[in-house]
Amino acid sequence: MRSVAAVAATTAAMAATGRLYPTFCMATETDTRRIALISDIHGNLPAFEAALRAIDDEGVDGIWCLGDLVGYGAHPNECVELAARSVDLCLIGNHDLVVIDRLEISDFSANAAAAAEWTKEILSADSRAYLEKFDTHDEKQAIGLYHASPRDPIWEYVLSSLAADDCFDEMDPRVGAVGHSHVALAFWRKGDIPTAGAQAEPNSQLDLSQDRWLLNPGSVGQPRDGDPRASWLLLELESWQATWRRTEYPVDEAADAIRAAGLPKQLADRLYYGQ
After folding, report:
1. Which of 32, 37, 76, 240 could form a disulfide with 43, with the two C-beta atoms 3.0–4.6 Å apart?
2. Are 211 and 23 in contact (CB under 8 A)?
3. Which residues on neighbouring strands pair with residue 96, listed in sequence order?
4. Can you give the CATH number for the domain in which 38 is found?
């Protein structure tokens, strides 16, 4: 998949033929109604706290979370408590579902299953009650919200233009957002032109005012796009601008907590590499 910079170059080259690809640019001052879109916190309290501080600095009007507050990381209850205080809208993800007994642990990889078992043992009653309130998708907002995808809001990874194309067929809203893959991405469909997509680089901005879009803010707590910084998306609903942000956080604190909890060490090691 091409980077945002590569797509931007293509856009400029094709401008004379019509807007076949979106306009990517660096972020500038934008309008009011601002939403911070976050996903896949995964029990990483240092990352979540750092991202929320950065979001606060942006002066947003609301925070929407696409799910997976827990799993992998060593601070599930703390992350749920922080979300309950800070997040205005929340979905439930597959790692949340398994710890409240709505999915089978056997459906998960070995490391994910080990983390789920550990999380279930320490999950507080308040945390469980909070997670149980939510659904895997929400199409009542200004954009469609899905933990994984419009086709399968629990399990599908939308990592290709082919998958995104099928999702557009299933998605009623013009613009949608997904999490689950832990990769900051954008896919778009313009008329009869085949669906295309690109990985979103830090501070890249998209104009969403036309065409159809499927966005992924990336992961706050366990990025998998080669950048270990917490990833989130600033969404301007009045001007239809989307800007991807990355936030530094103390990875050592999150990794040390995972090791101290006796969780698989690979879950700590991967945080340093954004994998």
Report:
1. 76
2. no
3. none
4. 3.60.21.10
